[in-house]
Write a structure and sequence with these properties.
The chain contains five helices and 26 strands. It is mainly beta. The longest helix is centred in the N-terminal third of the chain and has 16 residues, at 30-45. The protein is globular and about 95 Å long. It starts with a helix and ends with a strand.
Length: 409
């Protein structure tokens, strides 16, 4: 099995490839990253607004020296982790109306020992979670969707030795509205916005009633997000622009992001999907970190995304969602798939997965021939005594004196 050998080799590489230590500041900023990623996923699911979607994943790093923690006390061996799920389901109220319910959950952090469900709660551990839920309504006649709900950010543990004081529970609320290819999404804490996102999904997607070929499939998908952040106690908001562009038959895409007004180029990725359903993918990416000291701050990486497993090395996704980890291979065991009617697809897909169906059509010639043969096998008549007599047609065999003779009617 060539695939098995490749996965074994990558696992061996993961055990000996070591990353730069994770800064404690990246762990304290994980709440905003989790909440924003969940809302982005919800925005992708709400392009359809009906059907269902499930995304479950467990990120694992096999060595305690892969993702060390860097604090004021030095460098500590341990394990960074991410457990998550996202579930969306909808019900048809009538021929055009669909009511949906969604829930997203992430649990991320760092601990001195590896675990599956129950953390070790070491001296330098930091564990937090984000839980998002809400309701949605979609009208397919007018192609509109509206959704709203709450986000709960919880701090499970933060060692007092190295982390600043954080609130152990924060409540946010969010809303999402879409009309055809335009959507607006926002999240708030009390009366202050946290993120505002405007998206123009101009690419035609047959999955949502568009075309599967032609110039309309080459229209870009654009989004602009305003993030609210604090710098030295003052608001220092910035805008991130994302541009996704189909390059070839909706299987090869370029994805570029820029930060305004000051930071400029943020990241670029080239993504190849063997089929437009996006259930499989290969990615190469480049990320410019905040340090501006030349080309050495460009982080190059790639990933292989299978239906049940994702292997990434220095990708933009891993850097942002695994506390700025770099220099190591990160494996995620996962399942991610959406469904609308009989169509199955991956996150952000343009076309459904091809479904293999077999249609059995009756062969009229064979049926007529079989009926004719049955009719020619024999006929029924009534003898003088009123008994039924079957007269066989065709060939018959009679056994006379131990030998077979052949005759015919």
């Amino acid at each position: 099995m060539k695939i098995g050998k490749i996965l074994l080799l990558l696992a061996m590489v993961a055990g000996v490839a070591f990353a730069d230590p994770i800064p404690t500041e990246a762990l304290t900023q994980s709440g905003l990253v989790m909440r924003d990623r969940q809302l982005r996923d919800i925005g992708l699911v709400m392009r359809g607004g009906r059907g269902g979607f499930v995304d479950i994943g467990y990120t694992y790093t096999p060595s305690s020296e892969q993702l060390q923690l860097k604090s004021k006390y030095g460098v500590h061996d341990g394990f960074a982790f991410r457990h998550h799920y996202g579930i969306f389901g909808s019900w048809a109220l009538d021929s055009v109306s669909h009511l949906g319910f969604l829930t997203w959950f992430d649990r991320v952090g760092w601990d001195a020992q590896d675990f599956f469900f129950f953390p070790h709660y070491g001296d330098f551990a930091h564990i937090s979670s984000s839980f998002t839920w809400g309701f949605s309504y979609t009208n397919t006649k007018y192609d509109v969707t509206a959704a709203l709900g709450l986000q709960h950010q919880n701090l499970e543990l933060a060692s007092h030795k190295v982390y600043p004081n954080e609130s152990d529970s924060l409540l946010f609320y969010w809303a999402h509205a879409r009309y055809k290819n335009v959507s607006l999404q926002a999240s708030f804490y009390r009366n202050t916005f946290q993120t505002i996102r405007l998206s123009l999904d101009l690419e035609s997607r047959s999955l949502y009633g568009g075309v599967s070929s032609g110039y309309k499939t080459f229209l870009p998908n654009l989004s602009a997000t305003i993030y609210r952040r604090k710098t030295n106690g003052d608001d220092d908001n910035f805008v991130r622009l994302n541009w996704e562009q189909n390059l070839y038959e909706q299987v090869l895409y370029a994805d570029v992001s820029f930060d305004f007004p000051d930071d400029g180029f943020r990241s670029a990725a080239l993504k190849f999907y063997p089929v437009p359903s996006r259930l499989l993918g290969i990615e190469a990416s480049c990320l410019r970190r905040q340090e501006r000291s030349g080309a050495k701050d460009l982080l190059w990486g790639g990933a292989i995304d299978l239906f049940f497993l994702r292997l990434g090395y220095n990708t933009v996704f891993d850097y942002e969602n695994m506390f700025h980890a770099k220099g190591t291979l990160i494996a995620e065991i996962k399942v991610s798939m959406g469904k609308i009617g009989r169509d199955h697809f991956g996150r952000g897909a343009s076309q459904p997965a091809p479904m293999v169906t077999t249609e059995h059509k009756p062969d009229l010639k064979k049926i007529l021939k079989a009926r004719a043969e049955q009719q020619n096998l024999g006929s029924t008549s009534i003898d003088a005594q009123g008994n039924k007599v079957i007269e066989a047609k065709g060939i018959r065999y009679e056994k006379v004196d131990g030998s077979a003779t052949q005759g015919g009617n």
